[in-house]
Design goal:
The complex is a heterodimer of chains A (671) and B (143). Chain A is an alpha+beta fold and 671 residues long. Chain A is built from 20 helices and 11 strands. Chain B is elongated. The chains are: A alpha+beta (671), B alpha+beta (143). At the A-B interface, helix 13, strand 1, helix 14, strand 2 and strand 8 of A face helix 1, strand 1 and helix 3 of B.
Chain lengths: 671, 143
């Protein structure tokens, strides 16, 4: 019953999306008219229905309803409940349903909360948003119905890939999806503004929170995915340039560029067409990402099934959306008036450079990811592009970008004096030079050139990142400035972690018998014994490693496991990782050699944790910027009115929010 | 600068930057692209010996052997037409199994020998490497 209910809710939601398109794209000329008035309530209703469908699917998974194909294929009664729950989106159909659910809920939030945008642009935006949604409803209903029944019902489910049986699964895919969907909301705003020829600061301010939210989620998703791969796959690496990782990196790069250019549009009313173009690019990248991950054309943990029909459906959607967006952009870009001017030496100029370098990086990753696919289709040649390409080609633009990131916030808006900029940059420049000389003497020739450069740049940029706070009253510094400083500092921290890990990481692969000792870095690892362990749906052999550090009293027992799952029968290794203040000790147990010896893989990874710590700082910076902006652009008024008006603030709030764009006019030159 | 001019300059700068990126990427691709071989491809044209390549196929049942050092293994990668012995030092990925698909990264020593630096995990039990899916479609094994 529940499955049929879910399916019916999904069909109804799709129908409402169609209605919303009609209301939005035909009704926007008369925003007060009867047709346009449909847009908002329909958006909310659509979100409620698709949420109901998604909740039904979750319930089907929780009670392991074995008459539903998807549950049979991906779940098992003996699974812990968290994985039954998270297993809902640990498969193709469920994850697509999550995608549209998040999209519809975000659309409903826009309909309910967005008060600053011109009514006609809001209506058009909702229409564009439903257009994106409808494509995915069609994809779900036609090519990947999550509620399909099977008859007769199975007696037991096939289980979930053990690699996915990890708390990370509960969070990693939803975070990335929130990111992708946030970008499509930003894109819907851009389409709405293009349709109504209303590209200006009000549009930028309405779009900015969505860009920030999606960027924060993408950042967290990438950081979490990277850490998950690091500890779960047992390879000791944190980034593999796997096409699926690239699929999340490309939208992130585009969203980062968009985030910076939308600030120019919101504060200085410049870079209008440019910002809209970036919104189109960012959306295209999140579509390409969805296509790469979901069409099954890639080698990856993320490709759930190879199904040519789905691939071509997604490719068609991709072509329609990107082509349509570019066509609309081409048609309407002429009507977008030129924004405010700026000097080459200005904050705007710096942000243009930022956008250019991010686009260059994006192009490099894009070409490297798609070239093998294109080459195979066009010439039949089978190629693979791996880390050597990405590392060598993207290193230079990335390092220049990070260097400029240090300098950019120290330049004033509109125009600045070369001498003044140089004075503000002198302290970071001295630190950079000192780091170059010191580290060059210490490690030059001993470690790779790239890691060395990375460490030097990280040191200089870390100082430059906090320089915007110099001589400011820290308590009166706006929250979004703090956000920028913390995010930029996070980039430096992350870079330091990457460089330190690639420069100083030590790795050993040894065959050990119980009682033997191996040395890795400054650690002694004594292999005491192996013991069998049983889990809820697996058995394992667990090694007991007694580790001690030379010259320190520190000792610890580490227990890496090699697990055997029985449904489906698979082996996974569970690395044992010990985090110290200056790095991580990472141990993996491999196979037995049949004569009492075991393969052991040992790593010492100095300061590797900085990579993810920096990533989280970047995300935190985004959150602070978001809160700061929302507060400045209406939150503060809202709060004041709410406090003053008491329990019935509705009328007053509506009034103040209506005048908000004026209240949020640019203040000061340093932002 | 006139309004039109600034937009024009921005567009030109953007075009130049994108062209630069494409050129950079292309030169990188020329140096770094690794060719993918199925075992029978080696019969058609001899493999490049001096550059990293990938070899993908099925692990022959019963071919996995441990070498004396305890950490190296040897196994045979095959397809319908041909088989190539592969040597690898390291821990095999979790999902490595005899009789199922594998992609090995490394170099050919000669037409008959492959040394792998890295064995790519076949992450999902339902997954076939796309390069192999072509062969598998014929036998209808792809779910």
């Amino acid at each position: 019953m529940l499955a049929e209910f879910g399916l019916a809710a999904l069909w109804l939601a799709a129908a409402l999306a169609a209605l919303q398109i009609y209301a939005g794209l035909w009704g926007w000329r008369q925003p007060q008219g009867a047709v346009a008035a449909l847009a908002k309530p329909v958006a909310v209703m659509q979100a409620a229905l698709v949420s109901a469908a998604f909740v039904s699917l979750i319930l089907l998974f929780l009670r392991t309803d074995l008459s539903v194909k998807l549950v049979v294929a991906n779940s098992h009664a003996a699974k812990p409940w968290l994985y039954k729950f998270a297993g809902t989106w640990g498969n193709h159909e469920g994850s697509m349903l999550l995608w549209v659910t998040v999209l519809a809920v975000a659309g409903a939030l826009v309909a309910l909360l967005e008060k600053r945008l011109e009514p006609k642009t809001l209506v058009a935006t909702l229409g564009a948003q439903a257009l994106i949604g409808l494509g995915f409803y069609g994809f779900l209903l036609i090519a990947s119905n999550p509620f399909a029944r099977q008859f007769p019902a199975a007696t037991e489910g096939m289980g979930l890939n053990p690699l996915l049986q990890d708390p990370g699964l509960a969070f990693h895919p939803p975070t990335l999806y929130f990111g992708y969907v946030g970008i499509s909301i930003a894109f819907a705003f851009a389409v709405g503004a293009l349709i109504t020829r209303d590209v200006g600061p009000a549009f930028a301010r309405a779009m900015r929170p969505w860009v920030l939210i999606s960027w924060v989620f993408l950042t967290i998703g990438i950081v979490a995915g990277s850490y998950w791969a690091y500890y779960e796959l047992g390879w000791g690496g944190w980034w593999f340039w796997d096409p699926v990782e690239n699929a999340s990196l490309m939208p992130w790069l585009a969203a980062t560029a968009l985030l910076h250019s939308v600030t120019v549009l919101a504060t200085r009313d410049g870079l209008r067409a440019w910002t809209v173009m970036l919104a189109v690019v960012a959306f295209s990248m999140s579509m390409v990402g969805t296509f790469l991950v979901r069409s099954g054309i890639l080698t990856s943990v993320h490709s759930f099934a190879v199904d040519p029909e789905r691939g071509s459906f997604l490719l068609m959607l991709l072509g329609l959306y990107i082509g349509g967006a570019l066509a609309l952009f081409g048609l309407r870009v002429g009507t977008v008036r030129e924004g405010n001017q700026f000097d080459p030496l200005s904050r705007e100029g710096g942000l243009v450079l930022n956008n250019l370098l991010l686009s260059v990086l994006l192009a490099i990753v894009f070409i490297g990811t798609l070239y093998p696919l294109a080459a195979e289709v066009l010439t039949g040649e089978k190629l693979s592009i791996g880390p050597p390409y990405f590392n060598s080609v993207s290193a230079a633009p990335a390092l220049i970008l990070v260097l400029l990131m240090g300098a950019g916030p120290l330049i004033r808006w509109r125009r600045d004096e070369g001498g003044a900029v140089a004075r503000r940059l002198i302290v970071p420049a001295v630190v950079l030079a000192a780091a170059a000389i010191g580290m060059g003497l210490l490690w030059g020739g001993k470690i790779g050139m790239l890691p060395l450069l990375g460490l030097i740049v990280a040191a200089g940029v870390a100082v430059a990142s906090v320089a915007p706070l110099a001589k400011r009253n820290l308590r009166r510094t706006p929250l979004f400035t703090w956000g920028m400083v913390i995010a930029h500092l996070g980039v430096a921290v992350s870079l330091a972690g990457m460089a330190s890990d690639s420069a100083f990481m030590q790795e050993r692969l040894v065959a050990m018998k119980p009682g033997e000792t191996a040395q890795i870095g400054s650690f002694k690892v004594r292999f005491d014994t192996v013991v069998p362990i049983a889990g809820p749906n697996w058995t394992a052999v667990e090694a007991q490693l007694h580790v001690s550090r030379d010259g320190a009293g520190w000792t610890k027992v580490m227990r890496p496991q090699s697990r055997q799952f029985w449904s489906p029968p698979t082996e996974t290794s569970e690395a044992a990782i010990e985090t110290l203040w200056d790095g991580q000790l990472y141990t993996v147990i491999g196979k037995s050699d049949g004569s009492g010896g075991w393969q052991m893989r040992l790593w010492w990874k100095p300061f590797v944790t900085l990579i993810w710590a920096g990533g989280l700082m970047i995300a935190l910076g985004g959150v602070l910027a978001l809160i700061g902006r929302l507060w400045r652009e209406g939150g503060a008024d809202f709060w004041k009115n709410w406090r003053a008006a008491g329990p019935q603030p509705a009328a007053k709030v509506a009034k103040t929010t209506g005048t908000k764009p004026k209240a949020a006019k640019p203040t000061g030159t340093r932002r | 600068m006139k309004a039109k001019n600034q937009r024009l300059v921005l567009i030109m700068v953007a075009v130049v930057a994108m062209l630069g990126a494409v050129l950079l990427a292309m030169s990188g691709l020329k140096d770094q692209a690794a060719y993918f071989y199925a075992p029978s491809d080696v019969l058609k044209s001899p493999p490049a010996l001096d550059r990293p390549v990938r070899l993908g196929g099925m692990v022959r049942k019963g071919s996995l052997k441990k070498l004396a050092d305890g950490v190296s293994v040897r196994f045979i990668v095959e397809d319908e037409a041909h088989a190539i012995p592969v040597q690898f030092k390291g821990i095999l990925p979790d999902l490595f199994r005899e009789g199922s698909g594998v992609v090995a990264e490394g170099r050919f020593l000669n037409n008959q020998q492959f040394v792998a630096d890295n064995i790519l995990a076949k992450h999902d039990e339902r997954y076939m490497p796309p390069q192999m899916a072509g062969d598998q479609h014929k036998t209808g094994r792809v779910s």
